[in-house]
Known about the structure:
Elements (H helix, E strand, L loop, with lengths): L7 E3 L6 E3 L7 E5 L3 H4 L2 H14 L3 E7 L26 H16 L3 E7 L2 H4 L17 H12 L5 E6 L5 E2 L2 E2 L1 H16 L10 H6 L1 E4 L24 E3 L9 H10 L6 E3 L20 H14 L3 E4 L21 H4 L3 H14 L6 E3 L15 E6 L4 E6 L4 E5 L7 E7 L6 E2 L5 E2 L4 E4 L5 E5 L9 E7 L15
Parallel strand pairs: 3-4, 3-12, 4-5, 5-6, 6-9, 10-11
Antiparallel strand pairs: 1-2, 7-8, 13-14, 14-15, 15-22, 16-21, 17-18, 17-20, 17-22, 18-19
Helix pairs in contact: 2-3, 5-6, 8-9, 9-11
Amino acid sequence: MSHPHARLVLSPSGRRLQTEAGTPFFWLGDTAWTIPNRLTLEEARQYFDVRVAQGYTVIQMVAVDPEGDPDLTNAHGDPAFLDGDPTKPNEAYFRHLDAILALAAETGLRVLLLPIWGQLVTGDSWFGGTHEKVVHAGNAYELGLWMGKRYGGLSHVLWCLGGDRPPVHRGVDYRPVWRRMAEGLAFGVLGKPLSWHVPDPGWKTLLLTYHTNFQAEPLRYSSSDWFPDEPRIAWHMLQSGLADGIASFDQVAADYRREPVKPVLDGEPNYEDMPDGYPEFGRLHDAWDVRKRAYWSLFAGSFGHTYGHASVWCMVREGETEPARPYTWRQALERPAAGQMGHLRRLMESRPYWRMIPSQEVLSDPGASLDDHRQCCMDAQGTCLMVYFTSRGSVSLDLSRLSGDAFHGWWYDPRTGGCRTGHGEPTDGPFAVWTRGEGLSVPIETPEGAPHEDWVLVIDDVDAGHGRPGSSDEDR
């Protein structure tokens, strides 16, 4: 199997992804883990079409997921494995996955594919349930090899191991299982043997990562907590999770500074309309909660962001809704934050996002609390900077690192994708113009509005010729 999608590779800086031709790639992902288990091909087409229209570029899914169906069947009732044996994949099941992956490519989407969900390795769910440990060190290589051979020719497929489980789970070290699976996968995709602990350019070609869980005590929610320097991990993935009060920008910043340099992404943050905890929960995360994690992560150094919804990851159908999942998957596709992630992408792509670097030193005050936090990034060449204000407030900015002698200031509304004046009125122009001669310490106050309205401040070197934030080249 093959497809003409340009393959993604690491950028020269080692912090981002780009095509082999050098075109920067913006990762806007959605967690639709259970598509192969839960959706027919026609339903998958409906889902893909909506996400493409909203601006998504990557779908995260699992080839075999017991949380989608404990019997490991697809939407047609075909089991993934014959006799429940991972070394005996069922052709009927995987033909359905083949079709879904081909459809994703046809619609322009890339896929981050997990061969199996972590529950099949650790044997238990998060809610007291159990599942047979069907994947272990004795068969993990063979499973990885088979998956790699079958899908390694798909240039739009990237790889992830784990699946909401830490590699050391309830006192048992499962790292040997994942390492063997990685080695099998590498041989299947690349056609040459690799050792998990030996540096090789092949690991960077494979672009493999690991999806862990959120762990509160001790605080761990990045692949770097478990694999800080293993060469088989090409980029670090976070799961900042459902809990409130998580300063995800701190973990992104820590992974950004880590040596050796690797890209970092929050691959599973708080989902829209998801409870803030299980089994007891108080409220559902709203669009503001979702936007916070997205802008924090991007401005702290991540190479993209992944969105999620409580009803989409598990594809809730009619008759399956409940207080913790109040929408069907179709209804959930149009929830506010789902569309607002497109505004985020358009903002970043209207500036040289591939050169943006974390720049908290520009701020006089990062804020006293998470709800008041400000996160700043800047073009490494000084043509622009952006500050995310989690809520209303004021701050002074040091513009000395910007290039040029005159600067435009814009207020970008992350809820609508439009620009506003200092009084919150719609505008197509900047709200302020400054010159270097007026001084490089600039006081800023967000537009008028509700206390929990977030804003993005964009300041440009006028000579750089950037257009209105969020606009495309066609708009200029």
